[in-house]
Amino acid sequence: MKLQQIRAFCAVVDHDMSVSRAARALHTTQSAVSKQIGQLEDSLGVALLIRAKSRILGLTDVGRQVLRCMRGMLAATDDISLIVSDHRREAGGRLAIATTHTHARYALQDIVLGFTRRHPGVGLHLVQATPSEIADLVATGEVDLGLSTAPQILPPSLATIPCYKLKHVLIGERGHPVFETSPLTLEAIARHPLITYSEQHAIGRRVNEAFAAAGLAPKIAMRGTDVEIMKSYAATGVGLAVIPLLAYSRTRDRKLDARPVDHLFPTSTVYALARRGAYWPRHLYEFVGKLAPDLTPAAIEEALLSTEPPA
Fold first, then answer.
1. Contact, 149 vs 166, CB < 8 A?
2. In the list 79, 211, 270, 274, which could disulfide-bond 216, CB 3.0-4.6 Å?
3. Which helix (H) or strand (E) holds 58?
């Protein structure tokens, strides 16, 4: 089993089972990719891919299990390259971050701009995904860092580094009667249709839990994962929505009214998700430090070693 065989196998999976696209990504030929995968299967003694004539249809059961391990092996080789570059004081390579649309749009914009200016040799990649998908991307080494609220299931290979708190606001179309209610209560909100995050997001789960604890069953008009879409529908009167405060601007969102609701729904913690034992180059410490200025390298290392689950 050789590293180039593993890279060929993972590249085919990453390119929707297309050998031609994998070959282009690896700067080689289709026949070379097919040969590498064939040799890999021969060395393991099992088929990793389901084939029909000249087409690859998907992964076998063994192939799905092997894929996760092989991604970890590739991530480890990338770590070795990072260690050498860091030792030579060469700021190069890539920094791949998986996060949700909200954080990419509102929390990271200025940080990314500053980072790319300070480290022009580092290729920065942003991948948008749900919290559960983010955890999987980090665990398999497809990205270096995840940024999200805690996923429902956290792989044991991941550590969580608390970065900042998310406060929330209730939004609705201008002039909505709920904003005349004082004090604002769960009962008052439950009288109106609600636009909410899916339960893949911590805020979606916490909103549902708060209503359930109060014995209320609000009418859910729609569920979503994109805060911009939720704001757009709220502005047209489809329903009220609970969104992160950082995604709301009085000047930008002129068709919306907003009220704080942290007395009704608990704040959420945003975590950096990272593989335990992975090597962190200096620019990764710097990036996380910009997210959470109070975090020292020592605090980051302590969080990477902690086995405590996120709150």
1. yes
2. 211
3. strand 55-59
Is 166 strand, coil or helix?
strand
Cα separation, 18 vs 23, in Å, equals 9
Instruction: Give backbone dihedrals phi and psi of 75, rounded to 5 degrees, phi first.
Output: -65, -40
Cis peptide before 183 (omega within 30 of 0): yes
DSSP secondary structure letters along 113-140: HHHHHH-TTEEEEEEE--HHHHHHHHHT
Closest listed residue to residue 242, CA positions, set 272, 269, 211: 211
Nearest to 267 by CA among 135, 168, 131: 168
**Cα–Cα distances in Å, from 160 out to 168, 269, 300, 309?**
22, 10, 9, 8
Q: For residue 198, give the amino acid letter.
A: S
Q: Which residue has the higher pLDDT, 270 or 26?
A: 270
Longest alpha-carbon distance in the chain: 71
Query: Which among 263, 244, 286 has a CA at the least distance from the CA of 185?
Result: 263
Q: Is the separation of the CB atoms in 80 and 69 below 8 Å?
A: no
Rg, the chain, Cα only:
23
State whether the Cα torsion 248-164-152-141 is positive or negative: positive
pLDDT tens-digit map of 18-65:
988 888 888 888 888 899 899 999 999 999 999 887 789 889 999 888
The count of other CB atoms within 10 Å of the CB of residue 196 is 24
209-220 pLDDT, tens digit per residue, is 999 999 999 999
Q: How many CB atoms lie within 10 A of CB 59?
A: 19
